[in-house]
Amino acid sequence: MRSEAGHSRRFGFRDVLAGVSVALVLIPQSMAYAELAGLPPRHGLFAAAVGPVAAAFLASSPFLQTGPVALTALLTLGALLPFAPPGSAEFVSLAALLALLVGLARIAVSWIRAGWLSYLMSRPMLDGFTSAAAILILSSQLPVVFGVDPEVEGVLQRAFWSLRHPGSWELTSLVIAVLTIAVIRGARRLHRLLPGVLIATIGGLLFSVLTDYDGPIVGSITAGLPPLVLDLPYTRIPELFLASIVIALVGFAEAASISRVYATEERIPWNPNREFLSQGAANVAAGLFGGMPVGGSFSRSSVNHLAGAQTRWSGGVTGLAVLLFLPFAGVMEALPKAVLGAIVIAAIAGLVRFQLLVRLWSVSRPQSLVGWLTFFLTLALSPRIEQAVLMGIAAAVGVHIWRELRPGVESEVIGQVVHLRPTGVLWFGSSAFLETALIERLAESPSARLVVIHLEGLGRIDVSGALGLKEFVEEGRRAGLEVELTAVPEHARRVMDSLTDVQVGIGSDA
């Protein structure tokens, strides 16, 4: 069977090749993102092994690759820091519980067929949050690449301390980090399928082993096969509930974006409800096997696509490849932590997008304020950045309601005829504001005898809006004015005909 774009839906060698190619990138990335989340590297590997396998059974996109990602890792760190020290047994258990809750939240969204929720987060809010989160992620890795242990708490504070104390830098770590970033970016420029992350990881590992490198290293990795963990701290669910909802929605935004991009490019269908279900299953599996919250990765999905993946089972191959690697994960113990930090920096640097926020000011100042407000709140509230997301969503909704409450009205006077052209949406919330605006325009033309209200600029008219127009018409007639309505939108015609005694759609354009 083939899709409309001609992609075979049968599992084959190209899926195996694509899945293994992604696994070669995922293994070091999952370790790096686990470190970012405050977890031992093996827990990133656990999530990278079981998450993609679980998602493969339910995914609708053949290209989406699931696993640990930077933004979800940062949200995980922020959600858990108030409750346990990073790296502790309690922190690890809470991370697994958070993954389980994120998975259940996404499954619930799928069951009630509310995949459309992924579209409700405004782009300015997401752009502001993503840029600020990227800055936090980059800041969190500065002590790692400098090989220092700052004497302060807080992501930004530790980054500033590292920059202010160059005498404490471990220069070998810094050189390793710079070379790692150069290899990753250089490989990407040579060919998008060239595994720069893998090359840099192997290079760093060989350097550490052959030169007796004495800087910070990954250390002991007793991975083995991921254990089934059912004894989780379920009494902490109320404390993690809100964070899990935020991660479930914000973390899904990237998966939805990836699926939409490839659905358009390859002309193949995708289903947001199915994708919520697959991502939910991946997180449930990650939680039950001692992992961390996972999401869709744009970079790994791109590798999967370029490598020729044909079905969703390429993701299953990726998970199985990581699973086969787990018994041998000890070979990564000598890997310099600077390599992991540089991997995160190389993946995240492009997400700092000040230009988008700056340009937005010239397009829509209210929306620009939403973006910048979310940006600064994310930095200020770190590490509890899920609170910044909620405030950003509230600000975006507030701006939308504010604008919907104030429809625009353009006016033109020709002799004794006043032409009024309202724009926007006429609903129960904006009806009173529109009536006030219309009266103000009439007050500016006391000699007017005919008022023509052109309704083609209104996107929708609800019952309250129609009643408001009726009252305006009646008040105008009592004041000796002739009032006509023209170009009533088709979807509002029935309401207008039922609730007004005005001849709809035949008014004069004099």
Radius of gyration: 28 Å
Which class best fits the helix and strand makeup?
A: alpha/beta
The number of helical elements comes to: 19
Which shape, going by the Cα principal axes?
elongated
Number of strands: 7
Instruction: Summarize the amount of helix as a percent range.
Output: 55-70%
State the end-to-end CA separation.
62 Å
Mean model confidence by pLDDT: 84
The sequence of SSEs as H and E is HHEHHHHHHHHEHHHHHHEEHEEHEH
Q: Spans with pLDDT under 50 lasting ≥5 residues?
A: 1-8, 500-510
Largest sheet: 5 strands, mixed
Description of the molecule:
It is a single chain. This protein is of the alpha/beta class and 510 residues long. 61% of the residues lie in helices and 7% in strands. The strands form two sheets. Strands 3, 4, 5, 6 and 7 form a five-stranded mixed sheet that branches. A hairpin with a 2-residue loop joins β3 and β4. α5 packs across α6 and α5 packs antiparallel against α13. It starts with 12 loop residues before the first helix and ends in an 11-residue tail after the last helix.
